[in-house]
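re: that chain from earlier
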Amino acid sequence: MNSLDRTDTEILKLLQRDASLTNKEISFKLHKSIATIHERIKKLKDQGYITKVVAILDRKKVNKGLIAFSQVHLSDHTTATLKEFEREVVKFPEVMECFQMSGAFDFILRVACSDMNEYTDFYRNKLAMLPNINTVQSFFVLAETKSDTAYPL
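^ sequence. v structure.
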């Protein structure tokens, strides 16, 4: 963040909240020229601050109302085993996020399914079939109090 000035930071804040804003709309909000905004956004993309622009869907409307957080403990912790797990688990469309963790479990997965039957199928026929799985402990979301994709800047 050290190489970002106030204008870059404000652009990032605006785009995190609404990536559909046009350069013209951003220029109006920040009192800068459209050309300046265009060049700044291009620079932010080139420097890797903006990695992709996506639409965030209502998970219930696309029939993915069940969210599980699954903690995975592997039986082996060699680099090859960890990499193999990562390489395989990212292939599953149900896995929305995968993080390698410190502590009692090796990975935590955010899994999106339509219902418990779909999760059971995912668990039995995909996740549990991976080699070196020792323990999987899953927690199911009862209510979503906050879900934000914008980082505080």
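The longest helix spans residues 34-46.
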